[in-house]
Every structure is written in structure tokens, then in C-alpha cells.
């Protein structure tokens, strides 16, 4: 099926010839080309929506300042970890240098990251 689109070249000044104000006909060979054009036009909106809902990781990094007890209490308070889970994360942070303490969307993880950072612990959303 052939689809024909019509566009007009508008005259910017009244002195221009009428020829520049004539319709321009473009022929599209298939419906697929039209759907591709629509997808490209909507692409930024789709990407923003997908980006908001993409799962991310809240990662806590090791440092030489905070104690195990402080990290454990912070994870229990901010991330709602059970004591055993918070303790395991603290050991992983200490021995491996980092640990993913929670997964979720950016919007869900941002308040948790702020709470962890306010407690003096380095954390990032990746």
C-alpha cells in the first residue's frame, strides 16, 4: 500500500513567488516506513519512560571510617534489611569493597541513597 504525505513550504515573505507555497507530495512505499517515522518521533518519550522504570542497583562502598555496627544499623534503618541480611552486606562491603544492598527504580532508590550518604556511608545508584 502506498501512502502519500503532503507538506507545504510556507512563504516567509509576501514578495516570494507562489511557487514556494505549493504543496510537496512525498510518497512512502510501505506502512512500515510510516510506523518507523512515528517511532522515531516518539522515541524520546519512550526512552524517558523506559529509563524511569529501568531497574538499578544501590551499591554501598567500603571505607576505613565506618564501623560494622554503624553500617548494619544504617542498612536496617534505611533499606529495611533484616539484621542477618544487613550483617551479610556489611561483610561483603568490607571484604569485596562494595555490595548491592537494594534493587529498584531510580525514584525508589534515591531516598535510600540520600539516607545512607547522610549517615556518612558512600553509596551510588548504578
Notes on the structure:
With 126 residues, this protein is an alpha+beta fold. The chain has two domains: 51 residues, no CATH class; 70 residues, 2-Layer Sandwich (Ribosomal Protein L30, Chain: A). It is built from four helices and five strands. A three-stranded antiparallel beta sheet has the order 4-3-5. The longest helix is centred in the middle third of the chain and has 23 residues. The N terminus is likely disordered.
- CATH architecture heading of the largest domain: 2-Layer Sandwich
Rg to the nearest angstrom?
Answer: 28 Å
> Could you say which overall geometry the principal axes of the C-alpha atoms support?
elongated
Main beta-sheet strand count, sense and barrel state? 3 strands, antiparallel
- Unreliable parts: 2-7, 10-17
Give the number of DSSP strands: 5
The helix/strand series, from N terminus to C terminus, equals EEHEHHEHE
Class computed from helices, strands and strand pairing: alpha+beta
Percent of residues in beta strands:
15-25%
Determine the number of helices (DSSP H or I, runs of at least 4 residues). Answer: 4
CATH class of the largest domain: Alpha Beta
Helix content: 40-55%
CATH topology of the largest domain: Ribosomal Protein L30, Chain: A
The CATH superfamily of the largest domain bears the name Ribosomal protein L7/L12, C-terminal domain/Adaptor protein ClpS
Gap between N and C termini, in Å? 46 Å
Amino acid at each position: 500500500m502506498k501512502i502519500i504525505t503532503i507538506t507545504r513550504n510556507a512563504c516567509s515573505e509576501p514578495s516570494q513567488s507562489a511557487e514556494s507555497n505549493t504543496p510537496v507530495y512525498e510518497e512512502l512505499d510501505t506502512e512500515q516506513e510510516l510506523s518507523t517515522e512515528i517511532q522515531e518521533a516518539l522515541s524520546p518519550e519512550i526512552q524517558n519512560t523506559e529509563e524511569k522504570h529501568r531497574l538499578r542497583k544501590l551499591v554501598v562502598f567500603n571505607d576505613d571510617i565506618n564501623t560494622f555496627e554503624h553500617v548494619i544499623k544504617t542498612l536496617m534503618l534505611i533499606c529495611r534489611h533484616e539484621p542477618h541480611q544487613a550483617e551479610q552486606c556489611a561483610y561483603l562491603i568490607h571484604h569485596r569493597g562494595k555490595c548491592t544492598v537494594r534493587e529498584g527504580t531510580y525514584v525508589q532508590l534515591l531516598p535510600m541513597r540520600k539516607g545512607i550518604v547522610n549517615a556518612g556511608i558512600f553509596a551510588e545508584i548504578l
